[in-house]
Amino acid sequence: MRELGVLLSYDMKRRYKDGFLIGYNIIFPILLTLLLGYLLAGSYGKEFTSYHYYSLVILPFCIAMAMITAAYVGKEEAYKKTAMRFLYAPIFKTQIVLSKLLSCTVIISVCNIIVLLFVKLVFQLPIYGEFWAIIFLLTAEAYCFCAIGMFIGLGMKNFIVIKNIINLPLCAAAILGGAFYPIGTMNDKLELLLKLSPLTWINQSMFRYLYDGDRDYLYKISLILILIGTGFTLLAIVRFRKEEFIHGDLPGYEK
Amino acid sequence: MSALLEVKDLSKSFSDKKVVEKLTLTVLEGEILGFLGPNGAGKSTTVKMIIDVEQRDDGEIYFNGEKTEDKMKVFKKALGVVPQDISIYDDLSAYDNVRFFCSLYGYKGQELKNRVKEALEFVGLWDRRKEIPSKFSGGMKRRLNIACSIAHSPKLLIMDEPTVGIDPQSRNHILETIKTLNKRGTTIVYVSHYMEEIDAICNRIVIMDHGIIVEDMEKERLKEKYRQQGFTSLEEIFLHLTGTDLRDQEA
Amino acid sequence: MGIYLVMKNNLRRSLHHKLLFGITFLLPVILCLIAGSIKLGGPSFRIGILVGNPNIKETLNEKVYPIIEISKGMKIEDVKEASLNTDLISGKYHVVMDYRESDAPENFELLSFQNESKKALLHTSIQEAIRNHKEINLSGLSQKTLTATQRSVALLITLFMIISTIHAAPMILDRNNGTYTRYRFASIKSGGYVIGYGLYNFIITFIQISASILILSLVQSGFRLNFMASIIMAVAVALISVVFSILVSLFSKSEVQANITASSLAAVLSLLGGAFVAIESMPKLLQILSTISPVRWMIELTKLL
């Protein structure tokens, strides 16, 4: 347990020193919300503005993109060539996986709180008592996507291939989830297609909580995200391969 | 001297190709063991199996008379490894590098600070502790690489070519450091291709080729044995035992 | 000669990554098909009906539903009250006709998060249509929408800006592990190296785009480009994607940074270029800004072709 603490504090330090990670999870969602909100300002009314819409849908999209960062965090030691030191030190693979996963989740969640506070103040997003419920959902999402990223980074053999194409399905999920523009349909088949994107559930759960007073749905979705995240955490631990951890990102290392 | 590490019948294959075959080796407490072999001989695989980075197919490893898998944490706490690749964080200061890796061994507070200071002083980097290694010379990085591996005072230190690509001054400093460490009671397994280094610091030499040990003897006895056959240097003995063919197997 | 060697060497390298090549080949086609299928039925105006008093249902069946059903491009459906606002926000319904406190078909409240004037105009148009038993006229509200071809091209350019970066990002690795320096040792100028990389990227991207266009024209009925137009489009999309990806790679420190930057920039340029929102509906400033978006250039090119 003490080793986990040491690893976690070290990983946290590395994460908060990562300017790109912080920028991507604070500045980018704010800028994107501003841009898209401005883009569609004329289409919305006063009660619910385009800034309100994008304040809510851009954050889950950016959190989902953190999956790529998490995958690379998993490979950080292979990059830095320090992986061997972790493997012969008296620590367990579970501690390595958990410290990386938790550090990513915590830092991204802190970024989420900052962004949500910003949009609440600047765009007058009508969230009061619901603030922490939304943060709970977004933290669950951050945990889930970071766990998937960790599984890709530490537990999959084809990281070299996957790392390059991982952003394409994420962008598709964002489009289907309405991150760039609300995509609605009354066609059952197409609705099913939209629901394939986890961002659809996440966005809708926030709308339902804030505008339809449906609290259960948000907590159900959060629970599902936590369960999926836990599944991928276990997979990342079980599928953790020492050779992959050491060499996984070396050029030409493919199996 | 008693046996600190015993390896018995260690075997490893990669897709039907035997890389290490029933290897038996003993490392005595307090010695500096030179571990030699051409590329692809199976040295690195053997070392990786000993330090539990590579799964072994067969065989047993004992540390202080106990099976390592039964007391893995105890074994790992007593083990230090200096990897061939420089395994340090380029973006952390020299001090933070040593501190972090030492803290993985359970040290904290004042004891951790003392150990970090001692290790950095030992390799001559205490004055440069606040600098980040990306600004260090090759020799300084190698020394820091060693400091990260010795701060927790390992009983057994495995060094995998720790002097690759550095100037004679740095090499000399590292070799002196190794001798001092040994005098202080650290048992060292020294893996290298530099015969003159092996000759300068090792008590005993093990030569490996094609996954098996072809020679295991005290240095002076080994030199004496082959001198009678006309081989005067370690390099000549090595080439005699392992041949002169090029070795292009994958590492 | 240097340019040719850089290009040839990279083509050879890419052949070692068959899995990556295969996936980047198939993925855009699959994504275009998915995205295309969202709008398969063409643009529609979706109206929800919310009924409180069941007695009014029969009247609505007679006087409201038929009017909406005969109106061009309109669809109607009963709304679940529990998720009313969510359905409006997420675009399932553009508007909801609220009959919870009403006893007459033309007497309804129009629920929508759209702007007030648009909402008022819609309200009046629907009320008039119900009163006169006529088709609902939304001509005053209609905004230009993209054709299936334009939408597909917009998606293709967005996707290929991301995919091209996958092929260009190894430049960063070459730079970081010193292979780039070797080119310089061999007196290949940095410009030649970049052009060589660009040429290799262009060939790969062009082949992939051509395949995507071919498959789209076979399976998506609304996608119409003749042979010559397809070739021009493939060249234009490949060229822009390659320039974009090389620029992103030159300014990125690592592959992950390049890939994330490319996705984010491509998404912004796509929105700005009118892939989702008609340029005419954008604020003036953004309309001017949208001229820098390659997505807009491609949509304009499709109109010309």
Shape of chain A: elongated
Oligomeric assembly: heterotrimer
Q: Estimate what percentage of residues of chain A fall within beta strands.
A: under 5%
* Average of the residue pLDDT scores of chain A: 87
Helix vs. strand class of chain C:
alpha/beta
Describe the overall structure.
Chain B: Pfam families: ABC_tran (PF00005). Chain B: This is ABC transporter ATP-binding protein. Chain B: Keywords: ATP-binding, Nucleotide-binding. The complex is a heterotrimer of chains A (255), B (251) and C (305). By secondary structure, chain A is an all-alpha fold. Chain A has one domain (2-247). Chain A has helices spanning 2-16, 19-39, 50-74, 76-80, 83-88, 93-122, 131-155, 159-165, 167-177, 188-195, 198-211, 215-238, 242-247. With 251 residues, chain B is α/β, with parallel strands linked by helices. Chain B has two domains: 1-78 and 158-245, Rossmann fold (3-Layer(aba) Sandwich), CATH 3.40.50; 83-153, no CATH class. In chain B, helix 3 packs across helix 4 and helix 4 runs antiparallel to helix 5. Helix content of chain C is 65%, strand content 7%. Chain C is built from 14 helices and four strands. Chain C has a four-stranded mixed beta sheet. The model of chain C has no long low-confidence stretch (mean pLDDT 81). Chains in contact: A-B, A-C. At the A-C interface, helix 2, helix 3, helix 8, helix 9 and helix 10 of A face helix 2, helix 5, helix 6, helix 7 and helix 12 of C.
